[in-house]
Write a structure and sequence with these properties.
Layout (H helix, E strand, L loop, with lengths): L2 H14 L7 H9 L7 H11 L2 H10 L7 H14 L5 H15 L19 H9 L17 E2 L10 H15 L1 H26 L5 H32 L9 H4 L2 H30 L8 H8 L2 H33 L5 H14 L1 H27 L5 H27 E2 L4
Antiparallel strand pairs: 1-2
Helix pairs in contact: 1-6, 2-3, 3-6, 4-6, 5-6, 8-16, 8-17, 9-10, 10-17, 12-14, 12-15, 14-15, 14-17, 16-17
Length: about 425
């Protein structure tokens, strides 16, 4: 029964080529051919496209160096999808065989096995090797792609990963620190010039609308530069350095999606703030007049209420920490993983809340470091020593730490085996 879906897939790929990952739902609909709900084989084939497992398979096939056998690659991808809860391992292996057959159809690829049948450990790889003649064998039909497998639902990581993000962020900085410093100079000069222009125009009341437009552009530029810094971190991770043109990657790659995601996050934070205000009103009440505000404030800050509020703040802080982390990861999903704006927001939220403990560990470590450095700068100020330089260095150092650790969190959560 499942062979018909593999045949439909081969026909679609043969006529139209491999669809984009964003078209996974449309592919599932076409494979199901009107069946509701879509049967498991159709869903399994669509999941492989959506998670970019198909791209992974194509890169593995195109790789000409030393590679792992197809059986190992298939087992790795299927195990990763099963671990992420996207497919059971048998369905993932069947779908991989079906995609492999569809991709190799122009060179007489082997037929995909039936879903539920015994796994063919090296069947597809061996059959493909025979189509290439003497220049290829099952041993060199090969290995890993140049990029780990993207998992849209995210991967739950152990709490200790938070410390690895801190350590890894420093390593990313140390590997290319001259370029990082130059990048900060470029960003500071660009945004500083825009901020100066905004201040000068705001000084003239007639040009206030122009100043408002410049403010929007400055904020947008900051967001796009953040995307560029994430690209720089990715390049350092993969190649050991980055080109200065990577700093402007966010300005030329999927700007519309970045803006759309930023608007979605504004709406989301407005909703969160409204819920917080509603919770406060329900707990304390609404003052009948302005005269009642002091009494309500005294009640809210006194005795048992104070302890309750402090506890509520701690709980809210821990609960909202992944939401803030998700907002930081959203640009990475858009510009580095080519996800649509809405999908990137939802994927970042889901992936972030799956990894609450690593983020708590990370926040405790970074928060402790900030407190220690801030305390030291306070002592210097109390001694009469200027601390402007220290505060500037602190700001930029922790800014880079945030960018590099955000990239590492994105990589580890959404790419299987990225840290191997």
């Amino acid at each position: 029964m499942s062979e018909i879906y593999a045949q439909r897939l081969a026909q679609i790929v043969g006529r139209e080529g491999v669809p984009e990952p964003a078209a996974a739902q449309e592919l599932e609909r076409r494979l199901a051919a009107g069946e509701q709900p879509a049967p498991l084989p159709a869903r399994a084939l669509a999941v492989l496209l959506q998670t970019k497992a198909v791209d992974y398979l194509r890169r593995w096939h195109a790789h000409t160096g030393s590679k792992k056998p197809f059986a190992d690659v298939r087992a790795h991808i299927a195990g990763t999808l099963a671990e992420g809860g996207l497919l059971d391992e048998a369905s993932a292996q069947w779908a991989l065989d079906a995609w492999y057959a569809a991709l190799l159809a122009p060179v007489a690829a082997p037929a995909a096995r039936t879903l539920g049948s015994a796994p063919a450990a090296v069947g597809s790889a061996a059959a493909f090797a025979s189509t290439r003649g003497a220049e290829a064998t099952a041993d060199d039909a090969a290995g890993e792609a140049d990029e780990p497998l993207f998992i849209s639902s995210g991967i739950a990581l152990p709490a200790g990963t938070g410390w690895r993000w801190v350590r890894g962020a420093w390593q990313l900085f140390a590997r290319a620190w001259p370029r990082w410093l130059l990048a900060l100079v470029v960003i500071g000069a660009t945004l500083g010039a825009a901020g100066l222009a905004m201040a000068l125009t705001a000084a003239t009341l007639i040009l206030l609308p122009v100043a408002g437009l410049l403010l929007v552009l400055v904020l947008l530029g900051y967001s796009l530069f953040n995307a560029g810094l994430l690209r720089c971190a990715q390049q350092v991770d993969r190649a050991g350095s980055f080109a200065m043109s990577d700093l402007f990657y966010g300005f030329r790659h999927r700007v519309g999606a970045q803006v759309g995601a930023a608007l979605l996050w504004i709406l989301l934070w407005v909703a969160v703030s409204a819920l917080g205000a509603l919770a406060f009103v329900l707990a304390v009440g609404v003052p009948a007049s302005m005269k009642d505000l002091p009494a309500l404030a005294a009640m809210a800050l006194g005795g048992t209420w104070l302890l309750l509020w402090l506890g509520a703040l701690v709980v809210a802080g821990v609960a909202l920490l992944p939401l803030y982390g998700a907002q930081l990861m959203t640009p990475a999903l858009i510009v580095l993983a080519d996800q649509p704006a809405g999908a990137a927001v939802m994927q970042s939220i889901r992936g972030s809340y799956q990894n609450l403990l690593p983020q708590v560990v990370f926040a405790l470590i970074v928060g402790g470091a900030l407190f220690a450095v801030g305390f030291l700068l306070g002592l210097l100020e109390a001694m009469g020593l200027p601390d402007v330089l220290g505060e500037t260095v602190l700001y930029f150092a922790f800014g880079l730490l945030a960018v590099c650790s955000t990239y590492l969190a994105f990589r580890d959560i959404f790419y299987a085996g990225a840290d191997e």
